[in-house]
Amino acid sequence: MIVSRTKQLALGALGFAAALVAIPASAGDGAMLRIGDKLKITVFETMDIPNPGAGEKGAEAAAVTQAFYQRIDLSGEYQVEPGGMIAIPLFGAIQASGKTLEAVRSDLGAAFEKTFGRRGGITVGVTQRAPVFVAGAVRAPGAFPYTSGMIVIQAVALAGGLEKDSVNAAQAVEVMREFERRAAIRDRLKNALARKAALLDRQGNGGANPALGRLLALAPDGEVSTLLAAAGKVARLEADLSAREDGTRRNAVEAAATEAELLRKRHAAFVAQLNARGERLKMMEALYARQMVESERVADIRRDFIDMEARKREFEVGVMQAEFRQGVAKDATDQASVRQKLSLEKEVAVLDVEIAAAEQSLATSLNVVATFGIGLGDATTQYQIVRMGPAGAQIVTAEETDSLEPGDVVKVMTARSTGKSERIKAAAR
Prior knowledge:
The chain is α+β, with helices and mostly antiparallel strands. Helices cover 57% and strands 17% of the residues. A hairpin with a 2-residue loop joins strand 9 and strand 10.
């Protein structure tokens, strides 16, 4: 059935109006669009359809029927990109940021007419605005939906309100941490001084013990006694171990010396026997020369003498080996003594470095504690708005009643009057 032109126009108008109603409008036509806004764009086009039965129906029937239909290829949701543009198929990039809905609708209509050579119907609505961000001294910082007419204090309320005593709380945490760190450094320093005092006593250089004096200035007498007892116990154990090792080495030296002396005595006695055998051999050879003894007996005595000379050389080698072992043991004892002294001096040097580092850390810690102790007066809240513009991000000081725009970042800061806490300074000492 062919509908009259009047009815078609009425139906098309109703469809066009329904599309307008279906599009959310969270921003009025006069509101400026911002980067991050989401738009719903619907494009309609009219089409003239010939009515072949117009002549038969009489004058009431139009020769052409006009119909409205939606361009699905162009309609849809679009977001204002960081560059401020929206990208529409066939139309290209259309500037949206900083313009009103009506201006964007007009630009889209011009682009449609330029592209297709005829006019089309276009509706533009905002489905979602860029959120407002709240950061700083609030209970629940984050991103919150933008509503028309939103002001700073409303955004702060959405973020849970101001974080009461946030500065004091942060300072208290930092001061407590610094106190714990400072206490740990003092403990390391006191232990190092006690250890050095014990090592200096072990060295036995005599005179005053500087480490003990510094330890007494740093800790009460009762704690000093406990630290020195613990360090002294370790030093005594180390001294006992060194003494046992020294005793073992001395015993080795004495054993080698005793062995060498015994071998020397046996060698002397054997040399006396060898000399006696030599005299006897001379006498027997003289008797043999006068043919008073047989040659076999002289030969036996000569063999015994030669054997004793060989044993004499063995005794001499044994004496040399024993004396060598005695020298090695003595050298080992001397070297061990030198190594012990070097080890003590090296440990004292390492402790000196550790003590100097700990004292430097204590001085730094005192400055940190004093710094965190500043600002115990009444708090005042300050607001800043970070807003993106054509030239980039801009930071402006704001009041509670200042209006916000989509995409704004509200920075909440709490400032306190200057003043130091005597309690914190006393605790730092």
